[in-house]
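Before going further, it is useful to explain how the protein records used in this thesis are read. An example of such a record is reproduced below.

***
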Amino acid sequence: MLRTIRHLTFALLGVLGLSAIIFMATSKEESMLAATYELVFGSPDQGAIEFETFTRGNAPNTALACPPGLCTRAKADFAPPVYPVSEDRLRALVTARILAEPDVIPVFRHASPGLPTQDRYVQRTPLMRFPDTINIRFIPLTETTSTLAIFSRSQIGYNDMGVNLARIRRWIDVTIQP
């Protein structure tokens, strides 16, 4: 009997907690929700990765598009296309595609001679406002061709129900104008 009461109490607390999160996510108190997430889970920006050496966990809340030979310790979900444009042009096209989406915040942009060109973004999910970190590396192949590697990962939750994979498929689907 006591065990049943405990289970009901925890279930009720869970429902109340979820209701509070949904209320905050849909109210004007979104900054309070973001602050709460950050207090509990840490910075929404999960930081840089080295595509050559990083490993993916077993949780189904990540997605990776990586050209063959680059991500030597992580299994890619698919290989991105080779684009008939320079690295700089590809970066501009992909950046425009990304910034056209809602709730995306650029948190890092790096382009220095001799070092890999990398960008990092945080995008929040529509309802619960969970932050996902997306790392992108732009890779020149020739003067007129390039590709990229992109890794998207959820900070909160175990299963993202395909959100990260759908995101990277959208983001790499850029139109190349001659």
Remarks:
- The mean pLDDT is 86.
